[in-house]
Design brief:
Layout (H helix, E strand, L loop, with lengths): L2 H57 L4 H27 L12 H26 L3 H81 L16 H27 L1
Length: about 260
């Protein structure tokens, strides 16, 4: 194989490696970046759960007009809560949520869903209560369970965070592997260039110096079994030295 083709193959391999490395970085970044909306959304569930409990507590002593506004706010929050929960499971393009893939997150979502439905029912009970005593009793249920419910939400946030950390850890391991592979490719490429190009050229240069020196050593001959560009140069050099040696021998014979 000619040096030209060897260098071409080396350059193509390096180009493919660089493109693959860049693509891998983009894919890894996209996977990690895609977890951020889910982590933020799951974290917002804590705030929304506490907000529903706060609205429920405010609804107990509220007058008619304020109570109507509080109920509308509670309904809006519950609708958004349902949307986030569904988006975390199945994905939601508008919320930048992707369908969950991590098994630990899936399991915690399955655990959290019935708890949310129960909590939502208790909040609805406060919104639908009529008398102050009925509102107070329904709100006491919400106040008693909100901390327990939020603990389960915290487990969901932790599961998302752990999944993201696992991806980051895997990305770091891949990065180390790619770095080692890049070093190996560099070392192999350097060795090939030195052995296939630079060293033969150095041998040729030394031989030309011997021929061009004051002593004009015409016994120089370089042995090679190569059939590439360097091999043809070596053959031409040996032919040139052989012809030059014969010319010098004839010249000496004529002079004698």
């Amino acid at each position: 194989m000619s040096i030209h083709n060897k260098l071409r193959i080396t350059l193509v391999a390096l180009f493919v490696f660089i493109i693959g490395l860049v693509g891998l970085n983009f894919i890894t970044f996209a996977r990690v970046d895609g977890d951020s909306p889910a982590i933020n959304a799951s974290g917002s569930l804590r705030m929304r759960a506490y907000e529903l409990a706060w609205l429920s507590a405010r609804l107990v002593p509220a007058e008619a007009d304020e109570a109507a506004e509080l109920r509308r706010t509670m309904m809006t929050q519950i609708e958004m809560y349902d949307r986030i929960m569904a988006g975390l499971r199945r994905g939601d393009a508008e919320l930048n949520l992707r369908p969950v893939s991590d098994e630990a997150v899936k399991e915690q979502l399955r655990t959290l869903q019935p708890l949310w439905e129960e909590y939502r029912t208790d909040v609805f009970a406060v919104a639908g209560a009529v008398g102050i005593e009925e509102k107070t009793a329904a709100n006491a249920v919400v106040a008693a369970e909100v901390d327990t419910y939020v603990d389960e939400v915290n487990k969901l946030v932790t599961a998302y965070d752990n999944a993201s950390q696992d991806k980051i850890s895997l990305s770091n391991k891949i990065g180390v592997g790619v770095t080692v592979l890049a070093f190996l490719i560099f070392a192999i490429s350097s060795y090939c260039i030195i052995m296939e190009v630079l060293r033969p050229i150095a041998v040729l240069t030394a031989a030309f110096h011997e021929v061009a020196g004051k002593e004009a050593d015409l016994t120089q001959r370089i042995e090679t079994e190569r059939h590439d560009e360097i091999g043809r140069i070596v053959q031409s050099f040996n032919t040139f030295i052989g012809d030059l040696r014969r010319i010098m021998q004839r010249a000496q014979a004529c002079a004698t």
